[in-house]
């Protein structure tokens, strides 16, 4: 015991005398390194008689813990002293102008959103927003999704623990809320984030949509075609842009259609981007289903309407020639600097 007490006193003196982290580390190596004093003591336990090993091992470990605690305490003191010295020496003149400043810029998704909103504002459309956490009534029931519809399955939709709450799969619930709040006639767009189980070069679990809704008397597909043609030609700045409407099914519209534009990369001649078809799919649309108007307390015998939905990242990929939708969310400055 006297031997270990003397060893601890010597270690305490050497630790206290260490004036830098480098000197302190040398003390640590001397006592606790692979060939340190206490390490050698532990190795020597095997040479002792079996009856003496437990007591000797306990004493060695106690000494090791004591030295370790003193080293840690002194290290904290030296680190605090070093930091204080650095703060004292490294004064900063906050009145000096900044260095290396770069102009910022809006994210490409934000730029597309603002452009779409501005174009529809010029056509008299207001902007409505709604919650990203929705219930099944607004996200599915009021939009004519039947109970067994595949979109309700967990493989497509993010359900929350507090069922039946979920992350909205589209911004159409905003249209339901707007009709219930304002009634008809109504002319709005609903931009916002949406969420679905999907991830590849053209899909992400979180993405942005803009959905449009117009409800009034004597509304027809001809009105829808005219508005979408004007919007897409102005968005892509192509007066000669052609549209093609293909019949398609969506629960909340009847009839429904997918809208294609002639490929803006090859002008319809056929290329890799359009898979040599000459057309690019951009959005879905149709006349609002009477069941949806009923659910929103609008008389379908007096009013009709049309709706459309378009992905903002999809528009950005076409407008800027972005090959992978995931680039929008990777925060790569090499990519983002192109849109300043």
Offer a quick outline of the entry.
40% of the residues lie in helices and 19% in strands. The chain has 340 residues and is of the alpha+beta class.
Low-confidence stretches: none
How many structural domains in the coordinates? Answer: 2
What's the CATH H-level homologous superfamily of the largest domain? Bira Bifunctional Protein, Domain 2
Structural class: alpha+beta
Q: Biggest sheet: strands, sense, closure? A: 7 strands, mixed
CATH topology of the largest domain: BirA Bifunctional Protein, domain 2
Task: Determine the strand fraction and express it as a percent band.
Answer: 15-25%
Figure out the total of helices. 11
Oligomeric form of this entry? Answer: single chain
Distance between the termini: 73 Å
- What's the CATH first level of the largest domain? Alpha Beta
Do you know the CATH architecture of the largest domain?
2-Layer Sandwich
> How many β-strand runs?
9
**Mean pLDDT across every amino acid position:** 88
Secondary-structure element order, N to C: HHHHHEEHEHEEHEEEHEHH
Give the proportion of residues in helices.
40-55%
Q: What integer value in Å does the Rg equal?
A: 35 Å
Strand order of the largest sheet: 1-4-5-9-8-7-6
């Amino acid at each position: 015991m006297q031997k270990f007490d003397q060893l601890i006193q010597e270690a305490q003196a050497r630790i206290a005398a260490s004036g830098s982290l480098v000197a302190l580390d040398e003390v640590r190596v001397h006592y606790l390194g692979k060939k340190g004093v206490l390490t050698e003591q532990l190795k020597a336990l095997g040479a002792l008689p079996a009856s003496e090993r437990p007591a000797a091992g306990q004493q060695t470990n106690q000494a090791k813990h004591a030295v370790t605690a003193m080293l840690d305490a002194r290290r904290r003191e030296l680190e605090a002293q070093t930091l204080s010295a650095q703060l004292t020496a490294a004064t900063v003149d906050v009145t000096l102008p900044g260095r290396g400043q770069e102009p910022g810029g809006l994210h490409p998704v934000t730029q597309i959103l603002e452009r779409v909103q501005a174009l529809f504002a010029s056509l008299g459309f207001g902007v409505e927003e709604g919650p990203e956490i929705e219930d099944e009534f607004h996200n599915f029931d009021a939009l004519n999704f039947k109970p067994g519809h595949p979109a309700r399955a967990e493989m497509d939709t993010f359900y929350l623990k507090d069922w039946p709450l979920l992350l909205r799969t589209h911004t159409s619930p905003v249209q339901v809320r707007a009709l219930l709040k304002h009634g008809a006639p109504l002319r709005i767009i609903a931009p916002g984030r949406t969420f679905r189980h999907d991830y590849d070069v053209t899909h992400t679990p979180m993405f942005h949509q803009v959905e449009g809704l117009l409800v009034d008397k004597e509304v027809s597909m001809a009105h829808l075609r005219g508005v979408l043609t004007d919007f897409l030609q102005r968005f892509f700045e192509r007066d000669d842009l052609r549209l093609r409407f293909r019949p398609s099914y969506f629960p909340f519209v009847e009839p429904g259609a997918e809208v294609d534009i002639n490929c803006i990369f090859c002008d319809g001649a056929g290329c890799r981007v359009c898979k040599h078809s000459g057309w690019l799919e951009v959005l879905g649309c149709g006349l609002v289903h009477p069941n949806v108007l009923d659910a929103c307390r609008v008389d379908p015998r007096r009013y009709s309407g049309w709706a459309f939905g378009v992905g903002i990242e999809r528009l950005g990929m076409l407008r800027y020639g972005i090959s992978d939708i995931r680039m929008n969310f990777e925060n790569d400055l090499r990519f983002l600097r192109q849109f300043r």
